[in-house]
Design goal:
D-Maltodextrin-Binding Protein, domain 2, four-stranded mixed beta sheet, about 10% strand, 14 strands, alpha/beta, globular
Length: about 475
């Protein structure tokens, strides 16, 4: 069932992920008074900018799922005595265990340290944000994935915070370079990143132990942890039939989580100039074929009908041995699984590689309490907030916290160096062409579902998508091409 908490943070939950970008271009254009970069025809066809789960089944029309602006309490206006209520919009659709952590370790400590501030914490998806912006009820602090930031910024929804950065003496060298680069466009700052999330392999130790299979390596670039070795392990971990069946791998039909396999194979989404979409090249097609065959041919991963309860639930209950997600999935995971889980590196082919999407905190251009909201952003992205995020399982982008025990040694049984190594070694990649990400993501949704149903092939799907995505890219104003 579609809910208002749909995003990468619930990547593997049951059901097809619906659309939060329907009408995005027209809504943001209305907010900013600017013309959209993409064609109206393309925008009208948009049906999704959020991930889809492992079960590609029909979903309700998402445009009706969050069509009411977020209620902002009357006290959100400055009160007597200088008290203010700030709306913190969690635009990634946090899982419940994440919501609990944010409230206890982010919201409450900030309110305690700042008694004049009350935080109205809203957990929703980007469809909700779009409606709020269009209804002139902007949140004060927006948590948004950096791959969605350029589209919103280009259309005037986000505030230029460059002067605030200079006044506050924020030092970009204190933060992860690749993640800082994703919030600065054309020399101007529009957000500060607070986490990054290298994709790793989560594995259920009980399933490995029962099958007598050695745990996967925790060092990236291990020459013995190849695609072939991964496939061999997945076969050994797959057993049983019907309700008792256990699978070696938990799949997703969200294309961005197939990209690490492309990069490992030496392929990429675009050429080095960023001007040409290269998804029909052999290395790209080969990687997508390998991944889809885990379900369709090798049978080491469940089909859509076999994973209707959601890959995350199958992992919790020992029906799946391995699957991939970002570091945010670990938040509160001990409560569900105790110490029966750990993380490992991706296998490699031509080279080691993974994806590392990031989140950032931004100000809405039409925000009502920018000064107070800015102080909150500085706390969230500074040492106090970054440490609180790190202790929960998120990967901080403030270098001093990334290298601290608060992140590296939180619970004694999970080796977070597996997460830190790809950042240190520079083998992480970010979502390609973020300025058109919502539209390109829309284009992938139905074809990916069809691929895993067996009603199309990888080469046919990519051949159909390449000119459509290239057209979107070609329509982007010159100054916005090639943004991080």
């Amino acid at each position: 069932m579609l809910t208002a908490r749909i995003s990468r943070h619930e990547l593997l939950r049951v059901g097809l992920r619906g659309a939060v970008a329907t009408g995005m271009i027209s809504i943001l254009a209305a907010c900013s008074g600017t013309s959209p970069a993409a064609s109206p025809t393309t925008a009208a066809k948009a049906v999704s900018s959020t991930p889809v789960s492992s079960a590609p089944t029909a979903a309700p029309n998402p445009t009706t799922a969050a069509a009411v602006p977020t209620p902002i309490p009357a006290q959100s206006n400055t009160q007597a005595g200088g008290k203010v209520t700030l709306t913190l919009f969690g635009g990634n659709g946090l899982a419940q265990r994440e919501i609990d952590y944010w409230k206890a370790n982010i919201v409450e400590p900030y309110e305690k340290a700042n008694p004049n501030i009350t935080i109205n914490f809203v957990n929703a998806d980007l469809n909700k944000l779009l409606v709020d912006l269009a209804g002139n009820l902007p949140p004060d602090v927006i948590d948004i994935e950096t791959k969605n930031l350029p589209s919103y910024t280009m259309r005037g929804a986000m505030d230029d915070i460059t002067s605030r950065i200079m006044t506050s003496k924020v030092n970009k060298d204190d933060y992860s370079g690749p993640d800082i680069a994703k919030v600065i466009f054309n020399g101007k700052w529009y957000a500060i990143p607070w986490d990054t999330a290298p994709a790793v392999i989560y594995y259920n130790k009980k399933v490995f132990d029962s099958a007598g299979v050695k745990y996967p390596p925790q060092t990236w670039g291990d020459s013995e942890w190849t695609w072939d070795a991964f496939l061999t392990a997945a076969h050994k971990l797959t057993s049983g039939t019907g309700p008792a069946q256990i699978f070696g791998w938990g799949p997703t039909n969200w294309w961005v989580y197939w990209m690490p396999w492309v990069w490992q194979n030496g392929g990429d989404f675009n050429d080095p100039t960023g001007a040409k979409i290269t998804i029909t090249e052999a290395a790209f097609e080969e990687a997508f074929t390998f991944y889809s065959n885990l379900i369709l041919k090798e049978k080491v991963a469940p089909s859509p009908s076999q994973s209707s309860i959601g890959v995350d639930q199958m992992f919790f209950t020992g029906k799946i041995a391995m699957f991939s997600s970002g570091s945010y999935f670990s938040v509160g995971l001990d409560k569900s699984m105790g110490s029966d889980w750990d993380i490992a590196a991706y296998p490699m082919k031509a080279k080691a590689a993974t994806r590392s999407p990031a989140d950032c905190h931004a100000l809405a251009k039409a925000g009502k309490h920018k000064d107070e909201a800015w102080q909150m952003i500085l706390w969230l992205t500074g040492t106090p907030g970054e440490t609180a995020y790190a202790l929960g399982g998120y990967t901080p982008v403030l270098k001093s916290v990334l290298n601290s025990d608060a992140f590296l040694q939180p619970n004694g049984h999970v080796n977070r160096k597996v997460i830190a190594q790809p950042l240190i070694d520079g083998i992480t990649h970010h979502t390609a062409e973020p300025v058109i990400y919502p539209q390109e993501n829309n284009l992938f949704t139905t074809p990916m579902n069809n691929l895993l149903r067996g009603s199309t092939t990888v080469d046919a799907m990519l051949a159909d998508l390449q000119p459509k995505i290239q057209k979107l890219l070609d329509a982007v104003p010159e100054e916005w091409r090639g943004v991080a």
